Amino acid sequence: MADTAAPIDSTYNFIFWFSVVFTVVITVTMMYFVVKYKRRKGVPSEPTGHFNRLEIFWTVTPTIFIGVLFHVGFASYIKNATAAEGATEIRVRGKKWSWEFEYPSGDRVPGELTLELGRPYKMILSSDDVLHSFFIPEFRMKRDCVPGQYSFIQFTPTVAGDAQVFCAEYCGTSHSGMLASVKILPPAEYKEFEKTLGKCSEGPEICDEKHPERWGEKLFVKNACVTCHGTAGSGIVGGSKSPGPKLAGVFNTMQPMATGPGVMADENYLRESMLRPNAKIVAGYTTVQMPAFVMKDPQIDAIIAYLKTLK
Ligand code: CUA
């Protein structure tokens, strides 16, 4: 179980019992009236005509109830949509037909997600091929994994034990077998698991892949990003303002745009700016001469991982 389950369960139960009570009250009243006012021989009907106060009463009351239901649902939605400060990020990649989890250490583990009890997590989801949906019923959490885009879910595991990841979007013949197990370990046991992470003995290429921020730094230099964004994205080239916007410390902040409202510099924004530099132009940088980079997801992820480290 995770902290996300309780608000969803309570909202569900609230709406369920709310509906049960009203179904019973309305049905019983209706049946009583059907019997009481049924047509009888010799008794003429007495139409009541229009009754304003009653009309207002049964319009306003349900509107208030609907407002309450909306508030209950929306409040728990917002609570579950907000990541805790300092949440541990795990990259989740869906592909036909498996799940891969990438830890902050850079280790990629297919088919098994190991989590620490009580630690807040943010899952960054994407797909390598078609539409999948990351679903952990025990956490009451489900989110689509869309190719070419990131989506997020966040939670804090609250009970140690096992859970199960399903794919909840039909994605081909082995969709039903697209499973992964979730292990929630108490902190002491998690420390043991953590010791197995971050070890790299496969040579520089693979080791780079295992450490996305290190790999990202190399790609940043290799693609000559430093020419326009400054060393380590400092926004300064040759002692003056660089041709491209500053990148250090930009992640997760609002960026003013040349036109229109500001934009949150999240993963999707960084990705879009690499692939389509003209899509959103930062205020003060009108001529965009940056080429659109053709890169695969792992490279883009690595550069984003690197940009996140720049303060
Ligand atoms: Cu992946 Cu269904």
Helix/strand order: HHEEEEEEEEEEHHHHEEEEHH
Rg of Cα set: 27 Å
The proportion of residues forming helix, as a percent range, comes to 25-40%
The shape, in one word, is: elongated
Structural class: alpha+beta
> Please, what is the average pLDDT?
86
Instruction: Give the bound compounds.
Output: dinuclear copper ion
Regions with little confidence, pLDDT below 50 for 5+ residues: none
The fraction of residues assigned to DSSP E strands is 15-25%
* Order of the strands making up the biggest sheet: 3-2-1-5-8
Count of discrete alpha- or pi-helical segments spanning 4 or more residues? 8
Query: Total strand count, please?
Result: 14
In whole angstroms, the N-to-C terminal distance is 35 Å
Largest sheet: 5 strands, mixed
What does the secondary structure layout of this molecule look like, with pairings?
Layout (H helix, E strand, L loop, with lengths): L4 H32 L15 H30 L6 E8 L2 E5 L5 E3 L1 E5 L4 E7 L4 E5 L4 E5 L5 E5 L5 E7 L12 E6 L1 H8 L9 H7 L1 H11 L2 H5 L6 E2 L2 E2 L12 E2 L7 E2 L2 H9 L21 H13 L2
Parallel strand pairs: 1-5, 4-10
Antiparallel strand pairs: 1-2, 2-3, 5-8, 6-7, 6-9, 9-10, 11-12, 13-14
Bound molecules: dinuclear copper ion (CUA).
Dinuclear copper ion binds next to loops.
Distinctive features:
311 residues, alpha+beta, 5-stranded mixed sheet, 14 strands, elongated, binds dinuclear copper ion
Summary, kept brief:
By secondary structure, the protein is an alpha+beta fold.
